[in-house]
Write a structure and sequence with these properties.
Helix content: 25-40%
Order of helices and strands: HHHEHEHEHEHEHEE
Largest sheet: 7 strands, mixed
Distance between the termini: 42 Å
Strand content: 15-25%
Shape: globular
Radius of gyration: 16 Å
Amino acid sequence: MTIDDYIESHIDPEPDYLYKLWRSTNIHMLHGRMASGHLQGRLLKMLVQMIRPKNILEVGTFSGYSAICMAEGLEEDGKVYTFEINDEQEDFTRPWIEGSPVSDKIQFIIGDALTEAPKLGITFDMAFIDGDKRTYKETYEMALSLIRKGGFILADNTLWDGHVVDPTYNKDPQTHGIETFNDYILTDTRVERVILPLRDGLTLIRKQ
């Protein structure tokens, strides 16, 4: 048994619908491992229950796994607004979101969150950034401008398979984007931040 197996056997079980979504994502989609999965999904749900946001902004829907997990933790009037820039994802993702037990709490939007999210005119309590790594800094600035004081931003993949500390790794644009983002928020006096070494790195950021 690996440490990951041990952890997953000692936390709340993965709901059957999400397990089926995870399996389908890995069978039918390229880079299926990008989906949040059991451990991170249960953490996202619990963080939502702790923060108790009314409105959540998600940048990067992918297959809808993380959006569903966050919606599970919302109170009755809560909403996840999730943006996916790749319109080729829609045929796979929309049926899974609309068929989920929390479909009424998710608004799935095809489009560029950088330009479209501000048009909603919504003040968010929480954001989950999991989109294009090359534009993480710009996405962060957009999300921060829409988050209330005391609100939270979660940024995924901030350890990037350990490439951020590997001097021999060829610094492709995505790796460079993650490094730029990590260095940028380190000195941002508007927020508090902590990196959790969970899966591929999850940074929790609180707006002062």
